[in-house]
Amino acid sequence: MDRLLQNTPLLSAFAAFVVAQMLKPIISTLCGNGWKWRYLTTTGGMPSSHAAASASLTVSIGMTNGIDSTAFAICVFITLVIMNDAMNVRYETGKQAEILNRWSEILSDLHKNGPFSPTSFKTMVGHSAIQVIAGALLGIICGALFTYLRLLNG
User: Fold this and answer.
1) 3-state SS class at 1
2) Which of 9, 38, 55, 102 is the most buried (most CB within 10 A)?
3) Contact, 126 vs 89, CB < 8 A?
């Protein structure tokens, strides 16, 4: 367990993920949408915690293993895949869920006494480009700062 707690890149990624999740309800409140406790544990929203964690991991690996290491190359590639997935695939899934929810409401209204019951799909699963960029910037800052402080303190 001690060795796991000494893994700076892993802890850096975890810290960035937690910071991003903690920022979501704060940013929601500042934007006038009110405090939403569920944002502490949900996907989607501002900033992207997946982008933050993967960027933080990548920066930390680069600082500890070198930017010429195989581990850094793997992290860069996986981070780009994660960010693309968050902006495109998962974002589109959320848009499709909105349409399905609307159709579900319409069908429920048409068949009020029938066997049809409305379904509600989660719509906040992906991110806009700005949410991913904000997450990546947060991750870069967290990763660099966390790793620098860990290396400084030995």
Assistant:
1) coil
2) 55
3) yes
